[in-house]
Write a structure and sequence with these properties.
CATH topology of the largest domain: Ribosomal Protein S5, domain 2
Structural class: alpha+beta
Mean pLDDT: 93
Number of helices: 10
CATH class of the largest domain: Alpha Beta
CATH architecture of the largest domain: 2-Layer Sandwich
Number of strands: 10
Distance between the termini: 25 Å
Low-confidence stretches: 1-6
Shape: globular
Order of helices and strands: EEEHEHHHEEEHHHHHEEHE
Number of domains: 2
Length: about 300
C-alpha cells in the first residue's frame, strides 16, 4: 500500500526502453562501452518517503528484497553518506514494473529515491552531484535524474548523456504508439553482458537513425546486441517479439538487456489490441501500451 501520510513526498519512477543498443568493447575496469538511445516511457513505479529515525524500505511486492541489495536503499545510504545526514526515512515502493525485463526499473527507483530524500532532508543538492551519486549505483540512474529529457543518446558506460533532438530542433518524442510486453522471463544483466560479443566497427549513427522515424530503416539497421543472446536462451521472448510483428508492429525488439519486448506501431488501435492479446494469452504475461508519443 502507499504511505498513509498524504503529505509524504511522492515520485513516479518511470521505465525506459532502448532504441538500438550497441555493445562496443569491454573496458579495462570490467565494464563495457556502449551506445544507445534511452527513451522514457509512462509505465512507472511509485515511491513515497516520510521522516523516520532510521532508513527502511517496504514494498508492495513481497518477493523483492528490501535490504541493502535494493537500489533504493543503496541510493538512500549513499546520499546520507555524501551529505553527512543522520536522519532516517521510511520509504515505500509500489512496484508496478517487472524486474529483469530491461526496463530500468531498479535504476529509476534509485533516481526517485535520491530526488525524494533530497527534498525530505532539505539538502538542496545540485543536479550534477545527484547524477554523480547516481552513476555509482547504476549506469541508467543519471538518465532518470534528467527528468525533463524524454530521450538521450547514452555513451561510455551509459552515463554520458546527450539529449536527443528531432529534426525540428525540439526534444525528440517518439511519434508512434508503443507496446511493451514482459513475457515473465527475468534476465540477469550481468549474465547478458557475459555472453554478448562486443563490436565497435560498422555501427550506424544511432541519433540519425532513430530521429529518421523511418521504420523500414529501423528494421534494417536498429540493432540491440543483446537480442540474439536473450532469444537463444529464452525462445519464448523471441516468440513474443514475433507476435507483436504479426499484430502490426513496424519494429520490435528487446527493451534493453532483459526479457521484455517493445513494439512500435503506426496504428494505435493495433497497439492496444496487441497489448490486450498478450495479457489474455498467459497469466504471467504483463503488457503496457500508449498511443502516439509513448507517454
Amino acid at each position: 500500500m502507499l504511505s498513509d501520510n498524504p503529505s509524504a513526498p511522492a515520485r513516479r519512477a518511470p521505465a525506459k526502453v532502448n532504441l538500438g543498443l550497441h555493445v562496443l568493447r569491454r573496458r579495462a575496469d570490467g565494464d563495457h562501452d556502449i551506445e544507445t538511445v534511452l527513451l522514457r516511457i509512462g509505465w512507472a513505479d511509485h515511491l513515497t518517503a516520510r521522516s523516520a529515525d532510521t532508513l527502511s524500505l517496504t514494498c508492495s511486492d513481497p518477493s523483492l528484497p528490501t535490504g541493502e541489495a535494493n537500489l533504493c536503499m543503496q541510493a538512500a545510504q549513499r546520499l546520507a553518506e555524501a551529505f553527512g545526514v543522520d536522519a532516517g526515512a521510511a520509504l515505500h515502493l509500489e512496484k508496478r514494473l517487472p524486474y529483469g525485463a530491461g526496463l530500468g526499473g531498479g535504476s529509476s527507483d534509485a533516481a526517485a529515491t535520491l530526488r525524494l530524500l533530497d527534498t525530505l532532508w532539505g539538502l538542496d543538492a545540485s543536479p550534477a552531484h545527484l547524477r554523480e551519486i547516481g552513476a555509482e549505483i547504476g549506469a541508467d540512474v543519471p538518465f532518470f535524474l534528467h527528468e525533463q529529457t524524454p530521450a538521450a543518446l547514452a555513451t561510455g558506460r551509459g552515463t554520458t548523456l546527450q539529449p536527443l533532438r528531432g529534426t525540428d530542433g525540439a526534444p525528440y518524442r517518439l511519434p508512434f504508439a508503443l507496446v511493451v510486453v514482459d513475457a515473465g522471463v527475468p534476465v540477469s544483466t550481468a549474465e547478458a553482458y557475459r555472453r554478448v560479443v562486443p563490436r565497435a566497427e560498422r555501427r550506424p549513427d544511432l541519433t540519425a537513425l532513430v530521429c529518421s522515424n523511418d521504420l523500414a530503416r529501423w528494421r534494417a539497421d536498429l540493432e540491440n546486441d543483446f537480442a540474439s543472446v536473450v532469444f537463444d536462451e529464452h525462445p519464448q521472448v523471441e516468440h513474443a517479439r514475433d507476435r507483436l510483428v504479426r499484430a502490426g508492429a513496424g519494429y520490435a525488439t528487446l527493451t534493453g538487456s532483459g526479457g521484455a519486448i517493445v513494439g512500435v506501431f503506426e496504428d494505435p488501435r493495433a497497439a492496444r489490441a496487441a497489448a490486450a492479446a498478450e495479457v489474455h494469452r498467459r497469466s504471467d504475461h504483463r503488457a503496457w501500451w500508449r498511443g502516439r508519443g509513448g507517454r
